[in-house]
Design brief:
about 350 residues; Rossmann fold; 2 domains
């Protein structure tokens, strides 16, 4: 299944900051077919470093999608039954408008003149695409990590536009620790002289800062047990541990595919995300929701620990919402939502099937 990323352009997009962006692109990929009733569409939200290429093999490099194990014929998000699509978020660097895009007013890359964006802005752009595709109501919005934030934002901001939400390994708001890790990454990038206040396009990229930022991120994605099993204290050579070699490889790999300014903007959007903002409590945030929920967390995830998912579940239940919750055992840490396919598949498959039957 070879996939080709598509681009939809919209003349403008109002942002939470009060700024209106002009000529806004959103990159997306689709899998499966939209049925005649247009009631089988599922939107997948990607995590921080993801993109629209969620499944299949890329047209250019043949690389599998980042959630290929979950999306496809017979898989959790069964493309024989559902029309599944994924977008690159606003502020990204893989086809959607972001700081590396050309500012139509200056004919130069936005850089740090790009306006602040929020998870709400990302979802607002997704809603424009959903309308563009002629879909009145989504069957589901699902995703892990930052994708879970998008699923929750959809349920709160567009309660009539989705039948169910599947937030996995996510949260309704970042803790101080989560913000702190993101800030370390941002500071590593901005401390790199090549960052040049964000004006590095066409010049040397801030590769050292980006590499360090990614290394920090990867530590938080794994668990102590998974790192012990994968690396232990094994030496790759006399001067380097296996874990050091792995982190350096991951850091250098990331530099080649991600934009440093997008890193700054997207991590800040995650930090700003707070469903209670302007609403007082999480329970009040869910007052108008109409969708069902399947909330999944993992035992070894210390970046997005299960208590944050439980907080969401309790708030939903206090509003008598239809919510199922499962904490899955795993040694993989936060990365579990990407690699623990078996039990996730069974949960998601059954939940989607029951939701879809209820809509017929």
């Amino acid at each position: 299944m070879v996939r080709d990323t598509q681009i939809a352009r919209f003349p403008s997009l109002p942002l939470d900051s009060g700024v209106t962006l002009a000529n806004v692109d959103v990159a997306y990929e689709t899998y499966g077919e939209l049925n005649a009733q247009r009631n089988n569409a599922i939107l997948i939200g990607h995590a921080f470093s993801g993109d629209a290429h969620a499944a299949g093999h890329g047209k250019d490099d043949g690389a599998p999608g980042w959630w290929d194990s979950m999306i496809g014929p017979g898989k959790a998000f069964d493309t024989d039954r559902y029309f599944v699509f994924c977008t690159n978020v606003l502020g990204g660097c893989r086809g959607s408008t972001g700081p590396g895009s050309i500012n139509p007013e200056t004919d130069r890359p936005y850089g740090m003149s790009f306006p602040v964006v929020t998870i709400g802005d990302m979802v607002r752009l997704q809603k424009k695409l959903v309308d563009h595709l002629g879909i009145e109501r989504l069957l589901a919005v699902a995703g892990g990590s930052m994708g879970a934030m998008q699923a929750l934002e959809w349920a709160v901001s567009y309660p009539d536009s989705l039948a169910c939400a599947i937030p996995i390994a996510g949260t309704a708001r970042h803790s101080a620790q989560q913000i702190a890790f993101n800030e370390v990454g941002r500071q590593a990038i901005m401390a790199d002289p090549d960052w040049n206040q964000g004006n590095y396009y066409g010049k040397t990229r801030p590769a050292r800062g980006m590499s360090v930022a990614r290394m920090v991120g990867h530590i938080t994605y794994m668990s102590d047990e998974s790192m012990r099993e994968k690396f232990g204290r094994r030496l790759r050579d006399q001067d380097q541990f296996e874990v050091e070699s792995y982190l350096r490889y991951r850091g250098s790999q990331f530099v080649d595919r991600f934009d440093a300014n997008s890193y700054l903007y997207i991590t800040k959007a995650m930090d700003y995300f707070d469903l209670t903002s302007g609403r007082g409590t999480l329970a009040r945030a869910f007052e108008q929701v109409k969708s069902r929920f399947l909330v999944i967390s993992f035992t070894s995830d210390w970046l997005y620990p299960s208590y944050q998912s439980v907080e969401v579940v309790r708030a939903l239940r206090s509003r008598n919402c239809d919510v199922a919750y499962c904490e899955l055992p795993s040694n993989y840490g936060h990365d579990a939502f990407l690699v623990e396919v078996g039990e996730q598949t069974e949960l998601v498959r059954g939940f989607l099937a029951s939701t879809h039957r209820g809509r017929k």
